[in-house]
Write a structure and sequence with these properties.
131 residues, 4-stranded antiparallel β-sheet, 19% helix, globular
């Protein structure tokens, strides 16, 4: 398990239950709570690479870096201010195409200096079992 904690609130994005081609993701805290099982197939390596790329930044960047699961039920986008505040935009979708389809989208703020640590924990999480 690994998580990303907000530096602005109690919000947290938690990755857990990694097994074979899936993992669980939960967004919780500061008036939001949603979770989903994400079937990553071979694309979990892409999510790991997303975190590794962010972890290599030593300075603020321009634009947005993003990743989305192959089924579109989970996506992450990261932006950085000139002061080094990193915002993750988290989107979770459930029951796609069903009458009770749901969507949760929320931000989570951290600091540029935390990205290397996040990348390290993401690497350990996704390398626990080969996906």
């Amino acid at each position: 398990m690994f998580s990303i904690h907000s530096t602005s609130s109690t919000r947290e994005l938690v990755f857990s239950a990694h097994k074979d081609e899936s993992f669980r993701v939960e967004l919780k805290g500061f008036e939001v709570s949603a979770s989903a099982d994400v079937w990553a197939y071979t694309d979990a390596n892409g999510l790991n690479e997303f975190f590794q790329e962010l972890g290599r930044f030593e300075r603020p960047w321009q634009g947005q870096h993003s990743w989305a699961s192959i089924e579109g039920d989970f996506s992450l986008a990261a932006t950085c201010t000139t002061l080094g505040n990193v915002t993750f935009r988290v989107t979770l979708l459930g029951l796609q195409g069903a009458p009770e389809e749901w969507r949760v989208e929320a931000g989570l703020v951290t600091e540029l200096g935390q990205l290397e640590k996040i990348a390290k924990f993401a690497g350990m999480f996704f390398d626990e079992q080969s996906i």
